[in-house]
Amino acid sequence: MIDEFLAMLAAERGAAANTLAAYRRDLEGSEALIGDLALADRAALARLAGFWADLAPATVARKSSALRQFYGFCLDEGLRKDDPTPALPQPRARRLLPKILSHDEVALLFECADDEAQGASPASIRTLTLLELLYGSGLRATELVSLPLAAVPRDAPMLTVTGKGAQQRMVPVSGRARQALSRWLAVRPGGTTWLFPSRTGHLTRIRLYQLVKELAARAGLDPAKVSPHVLRHAFATHLLEGGADLRVLQTLLGHADITTTQIYTHVDAARLVALVNERHPLARALAATPRGV
To answer: At what angle are helices 17-34 and 57-76 packed, to 10 degrees?
Structure first.
């Protein structure tokens, strides 16, 4: 039944391979704890609370969500007549704020990558190009490493990206990133359809994480603070600080729901306070009032 559920997710919702693997881990992990999910009743699901007691609330919420969707599928397909999911633990997951890099920290990364790329070695030019696309276009790690060569147009300053759920979107490529891409295409190994090839296919997410953390260390930053996803957060944060519209940011990031994008609004609190102080009619009236009146 788990296999049938995953097949439905792939066929009807276009779930990506990583998403399907995550669902499988959660469902098979639960099955290992309480036995066959097809036969589990409310009492069996209630026991999961004890097994999950030491997990983070967000992890428990994710596992519970996977089971709810699984049993919803079973009901829809007539494989079960009852819904045992009300017995699942329902923690209130607290949404963590994204890690943020300052403008100065990003500048240090680029300074190091630029200096190293002056040596014209393919590896250093590739690292610079990866950095430009992570921070300059806000790509997810998987989206970046799996870019086909055909995604890079010769003339238009846009990149065709396949995101979660096999949804395609167009993202702008900065002038700096286009220059880096041109340098990379000139030294990129041939004989493959991937933009960032490896010996067995395309560059892996794990290797991308390693490259970013190694660059951070060489730039004098704490590698624990820097990752491809942190650079995506920096892209979103710094665009908002520059006055970008939230709906535009949602499109650029490939978020299906704007509530996901809204998490970035917290970082702009200082700018919003300054905006109210400078632009609100009462603030202007107060500034115009003579002292001592």
So the answer is: 90
Between CA 121 and CA 131 the distance in angstroms is 16
Q: What angle do CA 186, 187, 190 make, to 5 degrees?
A: 95
Domain count, the chain: 2
Calculate the alpha carbon distances from 40 to 44, 61, 87, 159 in Å: 6, 19, 11, 47
Element holding 75 (H helix, E strand): helix 57-76
- Residue 196 in any domain: the answer is yes
Active site residues: 140, 164, 229, 232, 255, 264
Residues 223 and 135 in one domain: yes
Q: β-strand 158-162 against 168-172: which pairing, if any?
A: antiparallel
Residue-number span of the structural domain to which 55 is assigned: 2-87
* This prediction's pTM: 0.61
DSSP 8-state code for residue 192? -
Are residue 76 and residue 117 in the same domain, yes or no?
Answer: no
Domain membership flag for residue 30: yes
Amino acid at 200: T
61-106: pLDDT as tens digits: 889 999 999 999 999 888 888 899 999 987 765 555 566 788 899 9
Q: What are phi and psi of 34, to 5 degrees?
A: -120, 0
